[in-house]
Protein backbone atom coordinates (compact mmCIF):
# COMPACT_ATOMS: atom_id res chain seq x y z
CA UNK A 1 0.00 0.00 0.00
CA UNK A 2 1.34 3.44 -1.00
CA UNK A 3 2.23 5.76 1.88
CA UNK A 4 1.10 9.37 1.45
CA UNK A 5 2.47 12.37 3.31
CA UNK A 6 -0.25 13.66 5.65
CA UNK A 7 0.23 17.43 5.98
CA UNK A 8 -1.50 17.59 9.39
CA UNK A 9 -0.45 14.40 11.16
CA UNK A 10 2.88 12.71 11.72
CA UNK A 11 1.73 9.43 13.20
CA UNK A 12 -0.69 10.55 15.89
CA UNK A 13 1.11 13.84 16.49
CA UNK A 14 -0.24 17.05 14.97
CA UNK A 15 2.36 18.85 12.86
CA UNK A 16 3.01 22.42 14.18
CA UNK A 17 1.34 24.32 11.28
CA UNK A 18 -2.00 22.66 12.09
CA UNK A 19 -1.84 23.07 15.87
CA UNK A 20 -4.42 25.87 15.74
CA UNK A 21 -6.92 23.67 13.91
CA UNK A 22 -6.76 20.48 15.95
CA UNK A 23 -9.10 21.62 18.71
CA UNK A 24 -11.43 23.31 16.22
CA UNK A 25 -11.74 20.05 14.30
CA UNK A 26 -12.30 17.85 17.36
CA UNK A 27 -14.76 20.17 19.10
CA UNK A 28 -17.06 20.77 16.12
CA UNK A 29 -20.22 18.65 16.50
CA UNK A 30 -21.45 16.88 13.36
CA UNK A 31 -24.67 18.92 13.45
CA UNK A 32 -22.77 22.24 13.51
CA UNK A 33 -20.49 21.05 10.71
CA UNK A 34 -23.49 20.14 8.54
CA UNK A 35 -25.09 23.52 9.26
CA UNK A 36 -21.88 25.39 8.38
CA UNK A 37 -21.47 23.35 5.19
CA UNK A 38 -25.01 24.26 4.15
CA UNK A 39 -24.29 27.91 4.99
CA UNK A 40 -21.15 27.87 2.80
CA UNK A 41 -23.06 26.36 -0.12
CA UNK A 42 -25.81 28.96 0.27
CA UNK A 43 -23.23 31.75 0.23
CA UNK A 44 -21.54 30.37 -2.89
CA UNK A 45 -24.90 30.04 -4.63
CA UNK A 46 -26.05 33.52 -3.59
CA UNK A 47 -22.81 35.10 -4.81
CA UNK A 48 -23.08 33.12 -8.04
CA UNK A 49 -19.85 31.13 -7.85
CA UNK A 50 -20.46 28.37 -10.35
CA UNK A 51 -18.44 26.72 -13.06
CA UNK A 52 -19.72 25.29 -16.31
CA UNK A 53 -19.41 21.71 -17.56
CA UNK A 54 -20.75 21.19 -21.06
CA UNK A 55 -21.55 18.04 -22.96
CA UNK A 56 -22.69 15.95 -19.98
CA UNK A 57 -26.40 16.80 -19.98
CA UNK A 58 -28.39 18.56 -17.26
CA UNK A 59 -27.64 22.01 -15.91
CA UNK A 60 -24.10 22.94 -17.03
CA UNK A 61 -23.70 25.53 -14.24
CA UNK A 62 -22.61 23.74 -11.09
CA UNK A 63 -21.69 24.79 -7.59
CA UNK A 64 -18.05 24.01 -6.94
CA UNK A 65 -17.66 21.78 -3.85
CA UNK A 66 -16.09 23.72 -0.97
CA UNK A 67 -14.29 22.00 1.88
CA UNK A 68 -14.18 24.00 5.11
CA UNK A 69 -10.98 22.46 6.46
CA UNK A 70 -8.15 24.90 5.56
CA UNK A 71 -4.79 23.83 4.18
CA UNK A 72 -1.85 25.39 6.06
CA UNK A 73 1.71 26.37 5.13
CA UNK A 74 4.36 27.83 7.41
CA UNK A 75 6.07 31.08 6.48
CA UNK A 76 9.28 29.13 5.83
CA UNK A 77 7.53 26.73 3.44
CA UNK A 78 5.87 29.60 1.61
CA UNK A 79 9.09 31.62 1.21
CA UNK A 80 10.73 28.62 -0.43
CA UNK A 81 7.80 28.16 -2.82
CA UNK A 82 7.66 31.90 -3.56
CA UNK A 83 11.33 32.03 -4.56
CA UNK A 84 10.92 29.01 -6.83
CA UNK A 85 7.76 30.31 -8.48
CA UNK A 86 9.26 33.75 -9.17
CA UNK A 87 12.36 32.10 -10.64
CA UNK A 88 10.18 29.98 -12.91
CA UNK A 89 8.10 32.99 -14.04
CA UNK A 90 11.28 34.89 -14.96
CA UNK A 91 12.62 31.93 -16.95
CA UNK A 92 9.35 31.36 -18.80
CA UNK A 93 9.16 35.01 -19.85
CA UNK A 94 12.81 34.96 -20.93
CA UNK A 95 12.03 31.90 -23.05
CA UNK A 96 9.08 33.64 -24.72
CA UNK A 97 11.17 36.73 -25.38
CA UNK A 98 13.82 34.53 -26.94
CA UNK A 99 11.69 32.26 -29.16
CA UNK A 100 9.81 35.23 -30.62
CA UNK A 101 13.19 36.86 -31.23
CA UNK A 102 16.58 35.30 -31.97
CA UNK A 103 15.78 31.81 -30.66
CA UNK A 104 19.11 31.43 -28.88
CA UNK A 105 17.98 28.44 -26.78
CA UNK A 106 17.04 26.57 -29.96
CA UNK A 107 20.29 27.56 -31.71
CA UNK A 108 22.20 26.27 -28.68
CA UNK A 109 20.49 22.89 -29.06
CA UNK A 110 18.87 23.06 -25.60
CA UNK A 111 15.30 22.71 -26.93
CA UNK A 112 14.31 21.03 -30.24
CA UNK A 113 13.16 23.55 -32.86
CA UNK A 114 10.20 21.31 -33.73
CA UNK A 115 8.71 21.65 -30.23
CA UNK A 116 8.76 25.43 -30.49
CA UNK A 117 8.19 26.46 -34.09
CA UNK A 118 5.81 23.64 -35.06
CA UNK A 119 3.86 24.06 -31.83
CA UNK A 120 0.18 24.91 -32.36
CA UNK A 121 0.47 27.62 -29.67
CA UNK A 122 3.39 29.40 -31.41
CA UNK A 123 1.96 32.54 -33.04
CA UNK A 124 4.00 33.66 -36.04
CA UNK A 125 1.90 36.84 -36.12
CA UNK A 126 3.91 38.22 -33.17
CA UNK A 127 7.39 36.96 -34.10
CA UNK A 128 9.82 39.87 -33.83
CA UNK A 129 7.47 42.01 -31.73
CA UNK A 130 8.54 42.77 -28.15
CA UNK A 131 5.67 43.70 -25.78
CA UNK A 132 6.10 46.40 -23.10
CA UNK A 133 8.85 45.51 -20.60
CA UNK A 134 9.46 42.33 -22.60
CA UNK A 135 6.75 40.52 -20.65
CA UNK A 136 4.60 37.94 -22.40
CA UNK A 137 2.99 36.05 -19.52
CA UNK A 138 1.64 38.48 -16.92
CA UNK A 139 -0.27 35.98 -14.77
CA UNK A 140 1.56 32.67 -14.31
CA UNK A 141 -0.33 29.89 -12.54
CA UNK A 142 2.13 27.23 -11.37
CA UNK A 143 0.48 23.95 -10.35
CA UNK A 144 2.36 22.33 -7.47
CA UNK A 145 2.10 18.99 -5.70
CA UNK A 146 3.71 17.86 -2.47
CA UNK A 147 5.03 14.41 -1.68
CA UNK A 148 6.83 14.96 1.64
CA UNK A 149 7.76 17.51 4.33
CA UNK A 150 10.26 19.24 2.02
CA UNK A 151 9.32 17.75 -1.34
CA UNK A 152 7.43 19.91 -3.81
CA UNK A 153 7.14 19.34 -7.55
CA UNK A 154 5.80 21.49 -10.39
CA UNK A 155 3.08 19.57 -12.22
CA UNK A 156 2.53 22.14 -14.98
CA UNK A 157 2.73 25.83 -15.85
CA UNK A 158 -0.18 27.99 -16.99
CA UNK A 159 1.06 31.03 -18.91
CA UNK A 160 -2.07 32.11 -20.80
CA UNK A 161 -5.17 32.74 -18.70
CA UNK A 162 -4.95 30.64 -15.51
CA UNK A 163 -8.35 30.57 -13.82
CA UNK A 164 -9.46 29.94 -10.25
CA UNK A 165 -8.23 33.04 -8.45
CA UNK A 166 -11.83 34.04 -7.65
CA UNK A 167 -12.17 30.82 -5.64
CA UNK A 168 -8.98 31.67 -3.73
CA UNK A 169 -10.48 35.02 -2.74
CA UNK A 170 -14.02 33.80 -2.03
CA UNK A 171 -12.83 30.76 -0.06
CA UNK A 172 -11.10 33.16 2.33
CA UNK A 173 -14.05 35.55 2.48
CA UNK A 174 -16.48 32.77 3.36
CA UNK A 175 -14.17 31.18 5.94
CA UNK A 176 -13.69 34.54 7.68
CA UNK A 177 -17.43 35.09 7.73
CA UNK A 178 -18.24 31.62 9.11
CA UNK A 179 -15.33 31.14 11.54
CA UNK A 180 -14.14 34.60 12.68
CA UNK A 181 -12.75 33.12 15.92
CA UNK A 182 -10.30 30.98 13.92
CA UNK A 183 -8.85 34.09 12.34
CA UNK A 184 -8.57 35.86 15.68
CA UNK A 185 -6.67 32.90 17.14
CA UNK A 186 -4.36 32.28 14.17
CA UNK A 187 -2.13 34.82 12.43
CA UNK A 188 -2.85 34.25 8.74
CA UNK A 189 -1.39 36.22 5.84
CA UNK A 190 -4.13 38.06 3.86
CA UNK A 191 -4.90 37.35 0.19
CA UNK A 192 -7.33 40.22 -0.41
CA UNK A 193 -4.56 42.37 -1.91
CA UNK A 194 -4.63 40.33 -5.13
CA UNK A 195 -7.06 42.52 -7.15
CA UNK A 196 -5.04 45.67 -6.44
CA UNK A 197 -1.80 43.84 -7.23
CA UNK A 198 -3.30 42.62 -10.52
CA UNK A 199 -4.43 46.12 -11.44
CA UNK A 200 -0.96 47.46 -10.57
CA UNK A 201 0.64 44.78 -12.73
CA UNK A 202 -1.60 45.52 -15.71
CA UNK A 203 -1.07 49.28 -15.41
CA UNK A 204 2.71 48.80 -15.28
CA UNK A 205 2.76 47.26 -18.78
CA UNK A 206 0.76 49.99 -20.52
CA UNK A 207 2.09 50.78 -24.01
CA UNK A 208 4.53 53.65 -24.59
CA UNK A 209 1.77 55.55 -26.43
CA UNK A 210 -0.22 55.74 -23.19
CA UNK A 211 0.32 59.27 -21.87
CA UNK A 212 -1.92 59.24 -18.78
CA UNK A 213 -3.41 56.83 -16.25
CA UNK A 214 -3.89 53.60 -18.24
CA UNK A 215 -7.41 52.59 -19.12
CA UNK A 216 -7.84 48.84 -18.40
CA UNK A 217 -10.57 46.34 -19.28
CA UNK A 218 -11.14 42.60 -19.02
CA UNK A 219 -12.12 41.01 -22.33
CA UNK A 220 -14.49 38.07 -21.82
CA UNK A 221 -16.05 35.67 -24.34
CA UNK A 222 -19.35 36.23 -22.54
CA UNK A 223 -21.59 34.68 -19.94
CA UNK A 224 -21.55 31.21 -21.51
CA UNK A 225 -17.85 30.84 -20.69
CA UNK A 226 -17.06 28.48 -17.79
CA UNK A 227 -15.03 31.18 -15.97
CA UNK A 228 -17.40 34.12 -16.64
CA UNK A 229 -18.09 34.57 -12.94
CA UNK A 230 -14.39 35.13 -12.37
CA UNK A 231 -14.15 37.67 -15.19
CA UNK A 232 -16.95 39.81 -13.76
CA UNK A 233 -15.73 39.28 -10.19
CA UNK A 234 -12.21 40.56 -10.96
CA UNK A 235 -13.47 43.48 -13.04
CA UNK A 236 -15.65 44.56 -10.13
CA UNK A 237 -12.85 44.25 -7.53
CA UNK A 238 -10.33 46.09 -9.72
CA UNK A 239 -12.81 48.81 -10.71
CA UNK A 240 -12.28 48.22 -14.44
CA UNK A 241 -14.69 47.57 -17.29
CA UNK A 242 -15.78 44.07 -18.33
CA UNK A 243 -16.14 44.03 -22.11
CA UNK A 244 -16.93 41.66 -24.95
CA UNK A 245 -15.52 41.93 -28.45
CA UNK A 246 -18.60 43.78 -29.72
CA UNK A 247 -17.93 46.54 -27.16
CA UNK A 248 -14.58 47.39 -28.78
CA UNK A 249 -13.43 48.74 -32.12
CA UNK A 250 -10.20 49.83 -33.78
CA UNK A 251 -9.61 53.26 -35.25
CA UNK A 252 -6.61 55.52 -35.81
CA UNK A 253 -4.07 53.02 -34.47
CA UNK A 254 -5.83 52.59 -31.12
CA UNK A 255 -8.44 50.34 -29.53
CA UNK A 256 -11.61 52.06 -28.37
CA UNK A 257 -14.35 51.04 -25.98
CA UNK A 258 -17.95 52.02 -26.65
CA UNK A 259 -19.48 53.83 -23.67
CA UNK A 260 -22.65 55.85 -23.05
CA UNK A 261 -20.46 58.96 -23.09
CA UNK A 262 -18.81 58.11 -26.41
CA UNK A 263 -15.67 56.18 -27.37
CA UNK A 264 -12.96 55.76 -24.72
CA UNK A 265 -9.40 54.73 -25.59
CA UNK A 266 -8.31 51.43 -24.08
CA UNK A 267 -4.65 50.94 -23.14
CA UNK A 268 -4.49 47.50 -21.51
CA UNK A 269 -6.67 44.48 -22.23
CA UNK A 270 -6.62 41.59 -19.77
CA UNK A 271 -7.96 39.05 -22.21
CA UNK A 272 -9.73 35.90 -21.06
CA UNK A 273 -10.29 34.52 -24.57
CA UNK A 274 -7.97 32.27 -26.55
CA UNK A 275 -5.55 33.54 -29.20
CA UNK A 276 -7.61 32.04 -32.03
CA UNK A 277 -10.59 34.26 -31.25
CA UNK A 278 -8.81 37.59 -30.57
CA UNK A 279 -8.89 39.08 -34.07
CA UNK A 280 -10.75 37.56 -37.05
CA UNK A 281 -8.46 39.46 -39.45
CA UNK A 282 -5.39 37.72 -38.01
CA UNK A 283 -6.56 34.40 -36.62
CA UNK A 284 -9.89 32.61 -37.08
CA UNK A 285 -11.97 34.56 -39.63
CA UNK A 286 -15.21 33.07 -38.29
CA UNK A 287 -14.66 34.39 -34.74
CA UNK A 288 -17.38 36.67 -33.41
CA UNK A 289 -15.67 37.05 -30.01
CA UNK A 290 -12.71 39.21 -30.92
CA UNK A 291 -11.99 42.65 -32.35
CA UNK A 292 -11.16 43.09 -36.07
CA UNK A 293 -7.79 44.84 -36.42
CA UNK A 294 -6.80 44.40 -32.76
CA UNK A 295 -3.51 42.66 -33.62
CA UNK A 296 -2.41 45.54 -35.86
CA UNK A 297 -2.94 47.95 -32.96
CA UNK A 298 -1.10 45.59 -30.61
CA UNK A 299 1.91 45.24 -32.93
CA UNK A 300 2.11 48.98 -33.47
CA UNK A 301 2.21 49.64 -29.71
CA UNK A 302 -1.28 51.11 -29.38
CA UNK A 303 -2.55 48.62 -26.82
CA UNK A 304 -1.13 45.94 -24.51
CA UNK A 305 -2.74 42.49 -24.43
CA UNK A 306 -2.23 40.49 -21.22
CA UNK A 307 -1.12 37.77 -21.43
CA UNK A 308 0.48 38.26 -24.82
CA UNK A 309 -0.75 36.33 -27.86
CA UNK A 310 1.56 33.37 -28.29
CA UNK A 311 2.36 32.96 -24.59
CA UNK A 312 0.86 29.47 -24.70
CA UNK A 313 3.94 28.00 -26.33
CA UNK A 314 5.60 28.20 -22.89
CA UNK A 315 3.05 26.05 -21.05
CA UNK A 316 2.82 23.19 -23.51
CA UNK A 317 3.32 19.90 -21.63
CA UNK A 318 6.20 18.91 -23.95
CA UNK A 319 7.92 22.29 -23.41
CA UNK A 320 7.39 21.85 -19.64
CA UNK A 321 10.13 19.23 -19.53
CA UNK A 322 12.66 21.90 -20.56
CA UNK A 323 11.79 24.59 -17.98
CA UNK A 324 14.67 23.58 -15.64
CA UNK A 325 16.97 24.00 -18.65
CA UNK A 326 15.45 27.47 -19.27
CA UNK A 327 16.31 28.44 -15.69
CA UNK A 328 19.95 27.43 -16.24
CA UNK A 329 20.19 28.92 -19.75
CA UNK A 330 18.61 32.34 -19.12
CA UNK A 331 19.20 32.94 -15.42
CA UNK A 332 22.43 31.02 -14.80
CA UNK A 333 20.82 29.45 -11.72
CA UNK A 334 19.81 25.99 -10.58
CA UNK A 335 16.03 25.42 -10.45
CA UNK A 336 14.59 25.89 -6.96
CA UNK A 337 11.52 23.79 -7.80
CA UNK A 338 11.77 20.40 -9.46
CA UNK A 339 9.71 19.09 -12.36
CA UNK A 340 7.96 15.77 -12.14
CA UNK A 341 10.07 13.21 -14.08
CA UNK A 342 8.53 13.08 -17.56
CA UNK A 343 8.76 10.75 -20.56
CA UNK A 344 8.14 12.26 -24.01
CA UNK A 345 6.37 9.73 -26.18
CA UNK A 346 7.84 11.45 -29.26
CA UNK A 347 11.20 9.90 -28.29
CA UNK A 348 11.46 6.21 -29.33
CA UNK A 349 13.10 5.05 -26.09
CA UNK A 350 10.60 6.99 -23.95
CA UNK A 351 7.72 5.65 -26.03
CA UNK A 352 8.85 2.05 -25.50
CA UNK A 353 9.13 2.58 -21.75
CA UNK A 354 5.67 4.20 -21.55
CA UNK A 355 3.97 1.45 -23.56
CA UNK A 356 5.65 -1.20 -21.40
CA UNK A 357 4.58 0.49 -18.14
CA UNK A 358 1.16 2.01 -18.91
CA UNK A 359 -0.56 0.52 -15.82
CA UNK A 360 1.92 2.39 -13.59
CA UNK A 361 1.94 5.82 -15.26
CA UNK A 362 -0.13 8.97 -15.72
CA UNK A 363 -0.37 9.80 -19.43
CA UNK A 364 -1.44 13.28 -20.61
CA UNK A 365 -2.20 14.95 -23.90
CA UNK A 366 0.40 17.60 -24.67
CA UNK A 367 -2.32 20.22 -25.19
CA UNK A 368 -4.85 18.77 -22.72
CA UNK A 369 -6.27 20.56 -19.67
CA UNK A 370 -8.97 20.28 -17.04
CA UNK A 371 -8.23 16.65 -16.26
CA UNK A 372 -9.50 15.57 -19.67
CA UNK A 373 -7.57 13.45 -22.19
CA UNK A 374 -5.48 11.69 -19.55
CA UNK A 375 -4.95 8.18 -18.26
CA UNK A 376 -4.24 7.43 -14.59
CA UNK A 377 -2.78 3.96 -15.06
CA UNK A 378 -3.16 2.54 -11.52
CA UNK A 379 -6.84 3.60 -11.44
CA UNK A 380 -7.70 2.57 -15.02
CA UNK A 381 -9.34 -0.61 -16.27
CA UNK A 382 -7.52 -2.96 -18.63
CA UNK A 383 -9.86 -1.83 -21.43
CA UNK A 384 -9.06 1.88 -20.79
CA UNK A 385 -5.33 1.12 -20.81
CA UNK A 386 -5.51 -0.73 -24.12
CA UNK A 387 -7.62 2.05 -25.68
CA UNK A 388 -5.00 4.59 -24.61
CA UNK A 389 -2.21 2.37 -25.93
CA UNK A 390 -3.71 2.60 -29.42
CA UNK A 391 -4.04 6.40 -29.14
CA UNK A 392 -0.38 6.76 -28.12
CA UNK A 393 0.86 4.45 -30.88
CA UNK A 394 -1.18 6.37 -33.46
CA UNK A 395 0.15 9.80 -32.40
CA UNK A 396 3.08 9.56 -29.94
CA UNK A 397 3.94 13.28 -30.33
CA UNK A 398 0.62 14.11 -28.66
CA UNK A 399 1.48 12.49 -25.30
CA UNK A 400 3.79 12.69 -22.32
CA UNK A 401 3.84 10.38 -19.32
CA UNK A 402 4.76 10.80 -15.66
CA UNK A 403 5.03 8.50 -12.65
CA UNK A 404 2.00 8.28 -10.39
CA UNK A 405 3.07 10.61 -7.59
CA UNK A 406 2.17 9.97 -3.97
CA UNK A 407 0.33 13.31 -3.61
CA UNK A 408 0.10 14.63 -0.07
CA UNK A 409 -3.19 14.60 1.77
CA UNK A 410 -4.89 17.10 4.04
CA UNK A 411 -7.83 16.57 6.43
CA UNK A 412 -11.12 17.03 4.61
CA UNK A 413 -14.69 17.01 5.88
CA UNK A 414 -16.55 14.04 4.43
CA UNK A 415 -19.87 12.41 5.30
CA UNK A 416 -18.29 10.11 7.87
CA UNK A 417 -16.38 12.94 9.59
CA UNK A 418 -12.81 13.91 8.70
CA UNK A 419 -10.63 11.94 6.27
CA UNK A 420 -7.43 12.55 4.28
CA UNK A 421 -7.86 13.58 0.63
CA UNK A 422 -5.26 14.39 -2.03
CA UNK A 423 -4.56 18.04 -2.90
CA UNK A 424 -2.57 20.28 -5.22
CA UNK A 425 -1.88 24.03 -5.17
CA UNK A 426 -2.06 26.80 -7.78
CA UNK A 427 -0.42 30.07 -6.64
CA UNK A 428 -0.82 33.08 -8.95
CA UNK A 429 2.36 34.93 -9.89
CA UNK A 430 1.92 38.45 -11.29
CA UNK A 431 4.64 39.68 -13.65
CA UNK A 432 4.85 43.37 -14.49
CA UNK A 433 7.16 46.14 -13.33
CA UNK A 434 7.89 43.72 -10.51
CA UNK A 435 6.99 40.11 -9.72
CA UNK A 436 4.42 39.61 -6.97
CA UNK A 437 2.56 36.75 -5.29
CA UNK A 438 -0.08 36.97 -2.62
CA UNK A 439 0.71 34.46 0.17
CA UNK A 440 -1.46 31.48 -0.69
CA UNK A 441 -3.25 30.21 -3.76
CA UNK A 442 -5.98 27.85 -4.81
CA UNK A 443 -5.88 24.45 -3.13
CA UNK A 444 -7.85 21.90 -5.13
CA UNK A 445 -8.91 18.69 -3.42
CA UNK A 446 -9.89 15.30 -4.85
CA UNK A 447 -13.04 14.63 -2.84
CA UNK A 448 -13.44 11.03 -4.03
CA UNK A 449 -11.56 8.63 -1.78
CA UNK A 450 -8.34 7.48 -3.42
CA UNK A 451 -8.70 9.80 -6.42
CA UNK A 452 -5.67 11.78 -7.58
CA UNK A 453 -7.64 14.03 -10.00
CA UNK A 454 -8.40 17.37 -8.36
CA UNK A 455 -9.98 19.28 -11.27
CA UNK A 456 -13.44 20.70 -10.57
CA UNK A 457 -14.63 19.34 -13.93
CA UNK A 458 -13.69 15.87 -12.66
CA UNK A 459 -15.41 16.08 -9.26
CA UNK A 460 -12.76 17.97 -7.30
CA UNK A 461 -13.39 20.73 -4.78
CA UNK A 462 -11.54 23.71 -3.28
CA UNK A 463 -10.18 24.78 0.12
CA UNK A 464 -8.95 27.96 1.75
CA UNK A 465 -5.14 28.08 1.76
CA UNK A 466 -3.42 29.58 4.80
CA UNK A 467 0.11 30.91 5.04
CA UNK A 468 0.92 31.55 8.69
CA UNK A 469 2.42 34.95 9.48
CA UNK A 470 5.68 35.08 11.43
UniProtKB/TrEMBL annotation:
Pfam family, one: CP_ATPgrasp_2
InterPro entries the record matches: ATP-dep_Glu-Cys_Ligase-2, CP_ATPgrasp_2, UCP005522
Record-annotated Circularly permuted ATP-grasp type domain positions: 70-446
PANTHER family named among the record's database cross-references: BLR5612 PROTEIN, SLL1039 PROTEIN
UniProt protein name: Circularly permuted ATP-grasp type 2 domain-containing protein
Species classification: Bacteria, Pseudomonadati, Pseudomonadota, Alphaproteobacteria, Rhodobacterales
Amino acid sequence: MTEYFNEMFEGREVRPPYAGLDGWMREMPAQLRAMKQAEAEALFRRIGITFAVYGEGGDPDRLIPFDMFPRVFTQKEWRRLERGIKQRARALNAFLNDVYGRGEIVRAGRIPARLVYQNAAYERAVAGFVPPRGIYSHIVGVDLVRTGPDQFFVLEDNCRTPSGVSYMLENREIMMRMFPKLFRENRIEPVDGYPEALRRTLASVAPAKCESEPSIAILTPGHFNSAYYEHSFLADLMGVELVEGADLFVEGGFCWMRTTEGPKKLDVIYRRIDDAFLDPLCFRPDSMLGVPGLMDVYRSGGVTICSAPGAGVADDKAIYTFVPEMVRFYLGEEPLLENVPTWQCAKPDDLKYVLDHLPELVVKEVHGSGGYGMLVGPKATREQIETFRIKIEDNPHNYIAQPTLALSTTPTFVEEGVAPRHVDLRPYCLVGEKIELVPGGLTRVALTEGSLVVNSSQGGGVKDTWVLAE
